[in-house]
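Box 3.1. Reading complex inputs
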Amino acid sequence: MKYALKTNGNTAQLSLGGTLTFAEAPLFPKILAELEAAGTLNSLDIRLGDLSFIDSTGMSLFVHIYDVSQTRNLKVSVQGAIGPVAAALERAAFQTLFEFK
Amino acid sequence: MNRTVSSPAIINRAGVKRGLGRFGRLAAAGLLPLRADEHGRMVVLFEGAGTASVEDILCPPAAWAIDLDCISPDHGLDRLPARLLVRASTVATVHHDIVGMVVEALIQRLPRLDSIGVDIRLALQEAVSNAVMHGNLCLDGRLRSSRDGLAAFTQAMQRRLADPRFGRRPVTIAADWNHTHMIIRVEDRGRGFTPPAVSLPVAPKACSGRGIGQIRTLCQRVAFTKGGRRITMRFCLPSPG
């Protein structure tokens, strides 16, 4: 999996690409730590256009991001999910946790 | 699904010739139950940890691929009849996209599978994830429910992958099919578990517990045997044409 976290003022953009599966689990604490180190944020856009596959372990990253958003009053939106990724996120009812664009 | 009589060819891609004699003897004794297949029936021996890519490891005529880095790489193969089989160490299963490779190999042999390829990949991915994380690496998924627990979970994962007693345990994927359905078995060498009788809906905020429910949704039938170390998933095949 490839990921990039970019910040611009109070806004951050997290781009995920490739596959997000159990094999990538060791990266999750690093991504969450980078997100918390990004300073005071109002909004986070998660871009998934380049993500081709996700499993249930991969989906747990989104739940941790949701937990971060709740403690930091951060508005999170998810953009660009397609195919099996979009289907998996919908099946997990993540539209109840995040705004989907 | 008739058992073949002649011995399959053995190809050794490993850097050293270890294993070749053992598998050759098993093949000669008829103890490698490869199914007859018009795409060929060759056993490929490889070293998963030292291989840059395994993408082509099940290209015809290869039908079985065995990672010699596994603990006891031949153990129990005589009880896993399959047209397509891969046995890879836990380390290799984490470092390579074994599931994607198996699904591609299945579609290569059965192009009509393409329409349900995503379902098979999702179910197989969850089964392999369980075999690796909760089976061979003996990790408790419930740990992931907190940030501290997630850190402990991933540290334990990396520590055990580096430990040959865990990292060399095999994950085996065995596929067999006829005109109407496909059976895929996934087996690990962990401590086993008792699967839930039913899978209840999981709350969106839950960090774990989705995998088995997802498998049950995607398969026609699911069974756990060998104390939870083997899952057998049955899929209906799309009609030809």
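In summary: Chain B touches chain A at residues 94-95, 97, 100, 118, 121-122, 125-126, 129, 132-133, 144, 147, 150-151, 153-154, 157-158, 202, 204-208, 210-211, 214 (CB under 8 Å).
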